[in-house]
Amino acid sequence: MCHGKSCHHRRPRCPQGKIERFIEPCLLLLLSEQTSHGYELLENLEHFGIDPRCQDPGQVYRYLRRMEKEGLVVSEWEPGESGPARRSYRITGDGLAFLNSWVKTLEARVSIINKMLARYHKNQG
Amino acid sequence: MCHGKSCHHRRPRCPQGKIERFIEPCLLLLLSEQTSHGYELLENLEHFGIDPRCQDPGQVYRYLRRMEKEGLVVSEWEPGESGPARRSYRITGDGLAFLNSWVKTLEARVSIINKMLARYHKNQG
DNA sequence: TCCTTTTATATGTTATATACATATAGATGA
DNA sequence: TCATCTATATGTATATAACATATAAAAGGA
């Protein structure tokens, strides 16, 4: 993954049109499947089509800490199997409920974008 | 529409998950269909499922001015049929091209969100 | 042993975007 | 004349994302 000091990759400039706070429901979904820690979650965001090089690692850690403060997840330190200790996160009941409401929001968003795209394509056709 | 001083409607608190700068492609799409002015565009955003009470009118005018500065649209003052003068906007070639690239971006976003939603629903099923 | 890389977490600062509030003014009609 | 509708615009605060950097344990090679 190379986020270390020696890595000089530049994250590509990511274009507009991001979904605000989208990594939040993604993290909650991953945690609804199994407990995990920041670094692993960062890698697994890739499964959602989020280029990990596009993703600011700092943001992931900040979201996790915030979600814990809000009671959506809980964490505890855990010795690393190989490597340094990790903060292991587990989703709570509130977290699951919040994920459900996020899903409704996202479905509404998709429907709005699709309405716009349909109108665009109708004009072209 | 009641945006006047005497209107005490409060815009409902709109939840997270907005698509960043989404009104920009919506405005460009509307302008690709016909020239229009800010106030009319504001009302027509409703057709995209955007609650006009959720939409800050000031944002619409700011986006129009910015897009003009960027050469995506051009404007000229026009006497109002009834009511005050309007700034009438027309889309440019650059604006049409930009709309096309926005559409690609939005299609990519939809596919990412759908991937996430599919995974969520698979877990529930 | 020293140095580099990988794994892992965290925060400071700046830039951008949105939300909220308000100012201005011409036209219309009671 | 006074309220309302139409119409455009900007000031400011807050939220979000982007960019940069700090820290440190463990693993492995020279």
Detailed description of the structure:
Two copies of one chain form a homodimer. Chain A is mainly alpha-helical. Chain A has one domain: Winged helix-like DNA-binding domain superfamily/Winged helix DNA-binding domain (Arc Repressor Mutant, subunit A, Orthogonal Bundle), CATH 1.10.10. In chain A, α1 crosses α4. The first copy, chain A, is elongated, with a radius of gyration of 17 Å. The N terminus of chain A is likely disordered. The structure holds a DNA duplex (30 and 30 nucleotides).
Fill in the CATH topology of chain A.
Answer: Arc Repressor Mutant, subunit A
**How many separate helices of chain A?**
4
Number of extended strands of chain A: 3
- The biggest beta sheet of chain A, please? 3 strands, antiparallel
Under CATH at level 1, the class of chain A stands as: Mainly Alpha
What is the residue-averaged pLDDT of chain A?
A: 87
Tell me the helix content of chain A: 40-55%
Q: What string gives the helices and strands of chain A in order?
A: HEHHEEH
Largest interface: A-B, 36 and 36 residues
What's the architecture of chain A, going by CATH?
Orthogonal Bundle
**Looking at the chains present, what oligomeric state does this protein adopt?**
homodimer
Overall 3D form of chain A: elongated
